[in-house]
Write a structure and sequence with these properties.
The complex is a heterodimer. Chain A is α+β, with helices and mostly antiparallel strands. Chain A has nine helices and 22 strands. Chain A has two domains: 234 residues, P-loop containing nucleotide triphosphate hydrolases (Rossmann fold); 107 residues, no CATH class. The chains are: A alpha+beta, B alpha+beta.
Chain lengths: 360, 355
């Protein structure tokens, strides 16, 4: 088990291009505590897999250092780093039994038979694989195979960090729930440092204690699921987290108030550097817009019923935004008025959260 | 131009892939087939397209039996999970390809391609080749081709499965509207209940090759006719528990019960109670709320919501709730369940009603 430190990591796949050099990763500084559960979340091409490969040693960063427990491992090979990695598609030895698949890493490490037996037994129990230990791995379903990939990491005692690269992509929704909770329970039991890479917000947020949201080669926010939801650091985070994401609307600051299209939303200090800021927006999540007879009027464009709640798309003076309405509330068909929760309406300057602690 | 499947089935080597089903698809409607992997979604689409020869049954289109008509003579377009485009052609030529066999003027081709490209927001990419595009863009090209074909039946086989979550969200919102304008009948397959809900229209639940229900999507979700349909259309999984109904009310295994006169028209005996995760509440909100206790297995927090997995009455249940509740493992918690939020199923798995 290890604490992982990434110091000033930058990576380019075309280093020799001189001026034209493009960086797949820019300025990555991260500390992943020993035993923590982390997720790297972002769209395709954001650099999350590049970062994962740098941590596992499959890739040498162009600049910066990787430290495990304060030892510089930047130039070591993947096998020297003692990493367990679980990929999108389960990697199992089809001709071997489940038992032999799980025992494989231990046999390679020349462990005694008795100890191997004991460890395989324990891990099989954790993963509910005991009944299929003598079956061939080829006969298992996708989720069973993915459990084996997981088990091969769990049997080892020398694992510094366990990494998951989109591990639930090929698993059906119902089984996803089971495997996800299993993973969470296992993390509690074994206490390995775990890093989970995904583009799926639900998987990232439910698995990790802290999530690094990546965008165009940078970590735009590193925070708890709650922080990412309540105060996104950047409009990208607001948009990416949440379904649908945060609403962003033009706003003005007038006489100490934050104003949206003539409606005072809340008290607000003026922006201190107006000359450098090109674009000021307010951000408010659909969950923090309430149907409120004292609010401002909106026109209903569309209502999407998602069963548990409805997303009402509305318009106010040419601007569109989404409102979240739980199942138990009615949506009035006419004269709909809404208000923004001042506490949870934020100001963004050129995409970045302006001030986390504003007077409200 | 309704499309009708009469007693259609597919069997091979004595294995039933699709059990006999009859279905009439309303013209111009977006239909979603919801079912897990290997439930037969792709086989069903291939039968509908005419790519697969049915073991029994007939396909009727506009009052004509088209069962034996070869696929190229049917007006069908299909889009797959894998992005399939002509790799050597530009995006423009890819989208124009269905028009090339139709002998229409170059001017008309151009105008149609540009119109569809505009709709799918890929106009700036028309001169590129597919390998210069991202996955999302490639799938947009494949969808654009299906649109230009102006097929009466459009089959979409998990078209968004290989795309990023956020891209999926965006396309999911656009798709029904795109095809609604063309008047085509669309059949769309997915493994995800939430996707079916967002797409609207009509949905069919598919379970082991059997269509278990076909209804407007909202009513299928809110009013499943069987346990298996309810389970197929539930994410998080449907919570269930065995109950006994007698003259006093409905009893759970641990003795907790509703004293109720509901369901009196049904015989006393054993039933299964099913309810959705968001209807199992941490606080009492209704008069007929039943207090239940359970032991927490694990809690998942998504930033604004919590999923509390727990063991109660010998079953694994999930509480899906707004707000953040970080319960410890093995903690005993109380929950509330209203009978009006539950579905009751008989021992065969058929829904019974309080009438």
């Amino acid at each position: 088990m290890a604490e992982v430190r990434l110091q000033q990591i930058r990576h380019s796949y075309n280093v020799d291009a001189g001026e034209e050099t493009e960086y797949a990763l820019e300025k990555i500084d991260q500390v992943w505590e020993d035993g923590g559960a982390y997720a790297l979340l972002g769209p395709s091409g954001c650099g999350k897999s590049t970062l994962l490969n740098i941590v596992s040693g499959l890739l040498q960063p162009t600049e910066g250092k990787v430290l495990f427990n304060n030892n510089d491992v930047t130039s070591t090979t993947p096998d020297q780093r003692n990493i367990a990695q679980i990929f999108q598609f389960p990697v199992v030895y089809d001709t071997m039994t489940v038992h032999d698949n799980l025992a494989f890493p231990l046999r390679n490490r020349k462990m005694g038979n008795a100890e191997i037996k004991e460890r395989v037994k324990t891990v099989a129990e954790m993963l509910d694989l005991t009944a299929s230990l003598n079956q061939r791995a080829s006969g298992l379903t996708a989720d069973g195979k993915q459990k084996i990939s997981l088990g091969r990491g769990l049997v080892r005692s020398d694992v510094n960090i366990m990494m998951f690269d989109e591990p639930l992509t090929v698993i059906d929704p119902h089984l996803k729930w089971q495997l996800r909770t299993k993973l969470k329970q296992l993390h509690r039991q074994v206490g390995f440092t775990m890093v989970y890479v995904t583009h799926d917000q639900t998987e990232a947020l439910t698995f990790a204690d802290k999530v690094a949201v990546m965008f165009e080669g940078e970590v735009v926010q590193f925070g708890t699921p709650e922080e990412l939801f309540l105060s996104p650091n950047h409009t990208f985070v607001g948009h990416f987290i949440g379904s649908p994401g945060m609403n962003f609307l033009p706003c003005e600051l007038d006489e100490g108030f934050l104003v949206f299209s003539g409606n005072r939303i809340k008290k607000s200090a003026p922006i201190t550097q107006p000359e450098t800021t090109k674009k000021i927006e307010l951000g408010v999540r659909p969950e923090f817009i309430k149907i409120d007879s004292n609010g401002f009027p909106v026109n209903i464009i569309r209502i999407d019923d998602i069963g548990r709640y409805r997303i009402v798309k509305v318009e106010h003076s040419g601007y569109f935004f989404n409102v979240y309405v739980p199942e138990e509330f009615e949506v009035p068909t006419e004269n709909l008025r809404v208000s923004f929760d001042p506490q949870n309406t934020h100001i963004y300057c050129d995409g970045w959260l302006y001030d986390k602690k504003e007077p409200s | 131009m309704a499309l009708e499947f009469k007693n259609l089935s597919k069997k091979e080597y004595n294995v039933t892939f699709i059990a006999p089903f009859s279905l009439k698809l309303k013209p111009g409607i977006f239909n979603t087939i919801l079912g897990p992997t290997l439930s037969g979604k792709t086989t069903l689409l291939r039968l509908m397209a005419g790519l697969e020869k049915p073991t029994s049954g007939e396909i009727w289109h506009k009052e004509i039996n088209v069962t034996k008509l070869p696929v190229q003579q049917r007006n069908v377009a299909m889009v797959y999970q894998q992005f399939i485009n002509y790799p050597t052609m530009t995006v423009f030529e890819n989208i124009a390809s269905p028009l090339r066999v139709k002998k229409i003027t170059e001017k008309e081709v151009k105008s149609r391609v540009h119109k569809v490209a505009e709709l799918l927001k890929i106009s700036p990419l028309l001169k590129r080749r597919p390998d210069e595009l991202s996955g999302g863009q490639q799938q947009r090209v494949a969808l654009a081709r299906a649109l230009t074909k102006e097929a009466e039946l459009v089959l979409l086989d998990e078209p968004l499965a290989n795309l990023d979550y956020k891209l999926r969200e965006e396309l999911r919102e656009e798709l029904p509207r795109l095809f609604a304008e063309t008047g085509a009948t669309v059949v769309y397959t997915t493994t995800e209940p939430s996707e079916a809900l967002l797409l609207g229209g009509y949905s069919a639940t598919l379970h082991e090759g059997r269509i278990t229900q076909y209804d407007p999507t909202q009513s299928l979700y809110k009013d499943p006719i069987s346990l298996v349909a309810a389970k197929t259309f539930s994410d998080p999984p449907l919570n269930t528990v065995k109950v006994e109904k007698n003259s006093e009310g409905i009893f759970l295994e641990d003795g907790a019960h509703w004293k109720t006169s509901k369901y009196t028209n049904n015989p006393n005996g054993n039933y299964t109670l099913g309810f959705r995760a968001h209807h199992l509440k941490l606080f009492s909100t209704k008069n007929d709320d039943l207090k239940l206790t359970g032991e927490v297995l694990v809690t998942e927090i998504s930033g604004s919501e919590s999923f509390v997995h727990l063991k109660a009455n010998g079953n694994n249940w999930v509480v899906h709730t707004h707000g953040i509740y970080n319960f410890k493992e093995e903690e005993q918690i109380e929950m509330y369940l209203s009978l009006s939020n539950c579905y009751l199923f008989d021992t065969e798995g058929s829904r019974v009603y309080d009438e």
